[in-house]
Write a structure and sequence with these properties.
This protein is of the alpha/beta class. It has helices at 3-11, 26-32, 37-40, 44-58, 73-76, 115-129, 142-149, 153-166, 169-196, 215-239, 256-260, 275-282, 294-299, 303-316, 338-350; strands at 62-64, 79-81, 89-92, 134-136, 200-204, 243-247, 266-268, 287-292, 324-328. The longest helix has 28 residues, at 169-196. The chain is globular. 54% of the residues are buried.
Length: 354
């Protein structure tokens, strides 16, 4: 099997010839290539070259064109600050007030923001790797994206809290319209990403973490719109031989059954969730990816610790039976030791079940 076939087979809940390894190593790739993030995340050719260099060092099964979460938001008019070699942060949302959202329009992924950078990187990676290695593009989840558009994250969460406390139906309708807008923007970007050659159409919805919101808020304001994204994108992705993925940070056990109902082919599980429990909660409906702790294991750990934890993850889900991709629980820290990532890939490729 090729790396791409191996990954897609596992994503389709089948058993590949060996466990695929897919660390989420976007900015880690920039560090390996010695490229500052301010150059890496603004130039598709540079991003692709960095990921190719990282693959040459690791031999992992999925290369990742990824860096930050603001490339779609900038297309709406959000302003960010980009330090030379740190991830950017939001300076100004698209609108200051929720009542202004009807002035916003879905941006063109081929022209607006930094979406063209990621499309170019994915296209270049697809051309370089052909059908040998899987290519994963990014995708900011609708809840996270909505927070950047109207007032910023803190104000957005406060709007939801006050709406619920005051049972303000008018403001609730505005929030739903904002979520529709962010969902439509993600769908437009994912369609373009699949055309560019990505094997994955994803929603990375970090703000939907239960560290930030309650399960009730997830069910009301997030789940319907994540489901909308996957209901729309799945037929397009599957027709191209690609798959879909949902990632939410933190301990998601209380919402994992709902996440499995969104329609995503893969749930990428954070390190705070035991994989055997994740498998039970999702009842075999989806493939699972995860879930090495990016900080304590991949960054601060040793190759020996990485191997041991990797084997624990694979045993927990009986990885040899299929439906599992060994990954990092979230984004790999830029300064992680290369030897640790090598250990992760090597143990996945040699695992036969214990």
């Amino acid at each position: 099997m090729t790396s791409r076939e191996r990954f897609l087979s596992a994503a389709q809940k089948k058993a590949p010839d060996r466990v695929p390894a897919a660390p989420y190593n976007g900015n880690f790739g920039a560090a390996q290539a010695g490229i500052p993030l301010s150059k890496y995340n603004t130039n598709g050719e540079v991003m692709a070259q960095a990921q190719i260099r990282t693959w040459e060092l690791l031999g992992h099964d999925v290369v990742v064109a990824q860096s930050d979460n603001y490339y779609i938001a900038q297309g709406f008019g959000c302003v960010i600050h980009q330090p030379e070699n740190l991830t950017p942060h939001l300076v100004k949302p698209a609108v200051e007030k929720l009542e202004e959202i009807d002035s916003l329009k879905v941006p063109d992924p081929y022209k607006d923001g930094r979406m063209p950078v990621y499309l170019d990187a994915v296209h270049r990676l697809r051309e370089y790797f052909g059908k040998e290695v899987a290519v994963r593009g990014p995708g900011t989840g609708p809840f996270s994206l909505a927070s950047y558009l109207a007032g910023g994250t803190e104000n957005f969460l406060m709007e939801i809290a006050t709406t619920e406390i005051e049972e303000d139906k008018q403001k609730e309708e505005l929030l739903f319209r904002l979520m529709e807008l962010s969902s439509d923007a993600l769908i437009a970007f994912l369609k373009a990403l699949l055309e560019a050659g990505s094997d994955v159409a994803q929603a990375g919805d970090s703000l939907a973490s239960l560290s930030m919101i309650s399960p009730a808020i997830y069910k009301k304001y997030v789940f319907p719109f994540e489901k909308k994204v996957f209901t729309t994108i799945n037929p397009i992705a599957h027709a191209k031989g690609a798959v879909t993925l949902l990632h939410i940070c933190g301990d998601t056990r209380e919402i994992l059954p709902l996440m499995a109902e969104t329609g995503a082919d893969i749930l990428e599980i954070d390190s705070q969730v035991d994989l055997s429990e994740a498998k039970a909660l999702t009842n075999g409906k989806v493939a699972l990816m995860g879930n090495l702790d990016p900080t304590e294991v991949l960054f601060r750990g040793t190759p020996e610790k990485v191997r041991a934890i990797s084997e624990t993850c694979m045993r927990a889900v009986e990885a040899e039976k299929g439906g599992f991709i060994l990954g990092s629980g979230c984004e790999v820290v830029m300064q992680s030791p290369l030897e640790n990532l090598k250990a992760m890939v090597e143990v996945a490729h040699s695992y036969v079940g214990i």
